[in-house]
């Protein structure tokens, strides 16, 4: 009887560990490197999707109106008057982070020349809209709000030299800035873009790995969702297109590296089985 109780306890423990594994998709064969999906610490969450259940993002950056004097809520819970059209003829509302966004976008380049004066103009409006569309920020109304400022800041602060890429193709993941890029022979072959990695209790592990397998449409057993453009690199963890709004920062993945559609596709086309993956840094709150 004692032996039976011990056996039952061992089976129960194994079941708990399996259910608790913080991975997007579990591979019963392993990844060939001996790596296993990390066990989550501190948080237990229902397995309902590849990412945590979708919740409302920061209040939407307000759309253009002809004129307004009514204070509107921002993402801090306070209120601030919304500026709309300017004397220079801009067709976008002006956000509270106008000057910072102007500076970051000029540093990044590729979105048009912005005048760093903290005032919305027609050129600024067009550049900010282009940036928002590129990085999936909704609504892409040209307003320099908190999400736009945060994404631009992270991209502008990304230093590709921090990734120990070597000469072969390498996928780099900066957990601190929540950015991803690809390098080969010391040169960037895919510029930094935004990502969302593991949430609290499911932190994406740092280290150097290899892509173990690829699948354009991988099924996640624990979370019962499809993971588009899947590239596994550590146990049940891999790159894939996000299944929720990427810029909903309070949530995160169960260890995977979430990407926007066009970035997931580009990384998929670049990568192959054996591609080197370097993960470094630390996501705040995990």
From TrEMBL:
Gene3D superfamilies: L,D-transpeptidase catalytic domain-like, PGBD-like superfamily/PGBD. GO terms for biological process: cell wall organization; peptidoglycan-protein cross-linking; regulation of cell shape. Residues 62-81 have a biased composition (Low complexity). The active site is at 240 (proton donor/acceptor), 256 (nucleophile). CDD domains: YkuD_like. Residues 1-25 form the signal peptide. The keyword Ligase does not apply. GO terms for cellular component: extracellular region. GO terms for molecular function: peptidoglycan L,D-transpeptidase activity; transferase activity. Pathway: Cell wall biogenesis; peptidoglycan biosynthesis. InterPro entries: LD-transpeptidase (IPR050979), LD_TPept_cat_dom (IPR005490), Peptidoglycan-bd-like (IPR002477), PGBD-like_sf (IPR036365), PGBDSf (IPR036366), Transpep_catalytic_dom (IPR038063). Residues 46-81 are annotated as: Disordered. It comes from the Bacteria. Residues 169-280 form the L,D-TPase catalytic domain. Keywords: Cell shape, Cell wall biogenesis/degradation, Peptidoglycan synthesis, Signal, Transferase. This is Putative peptidoglycan binding domain-containing protein. It comes from Micromonospora viridifaciens.
């Amino acid at each position: 009887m004692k032996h039976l109780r011990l056996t039952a306890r061992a089976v129960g423990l194994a079941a708990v560990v399996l259910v608790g594994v913080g991975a997007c998709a579990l591979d019963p064969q392993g990844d060939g490197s001996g790596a296993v999906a990390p066990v989550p610490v501190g948080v237990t969450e229902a397995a309902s999707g590849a990412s945590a259940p979708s919740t409302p993002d920061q209040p939407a950056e307000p759309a253009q109106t002809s004129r307004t004097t009514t204070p509107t809520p921002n993402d801090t819970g306070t209120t601030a008057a919304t500026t709309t059209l300017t004397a220079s003829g801009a067709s976008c509302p002006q956000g509270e982070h106008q000057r910072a966004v102007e500076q970051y976008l000029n540093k990044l380049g590729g979105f048009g020349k912005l005048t760093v004066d903290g005032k919305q103009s027609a050129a600024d409006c067009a550049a900010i809209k282009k940036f928002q569309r590129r990085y999936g920020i909704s609504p892409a109304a040209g307003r320099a709000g908190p999400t736009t400022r945060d994404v631009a800041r992270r991209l502008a602060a990304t230093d590709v030299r921090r990734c120990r890429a070597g000469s072969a193709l390498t996928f780099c993941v900066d957990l601190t800035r929540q950015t991803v890029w690809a390098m080969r022979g010391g040169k960037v072959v895919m510029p930094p873009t935004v990502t969302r990695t593991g949430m609290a209790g499911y932190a994406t592990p740092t280290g150097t790995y290899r892509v173990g397998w690829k699948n354009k449409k991988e099924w996640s057993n624990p979370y019962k969702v499809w993971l588009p453009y899947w590239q596994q690199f550590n146990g049940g963890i891999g790159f894939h297109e996000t299944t929720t709004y990427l810029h909903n920062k309070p949530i995160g993945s169960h260890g995977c590296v979430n990407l926007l559609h066009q970035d997931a596709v580009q990384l998929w086309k670049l990568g192959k089985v054996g591609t080197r993956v370097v993960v470094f840094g630390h996501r705040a709150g995990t």
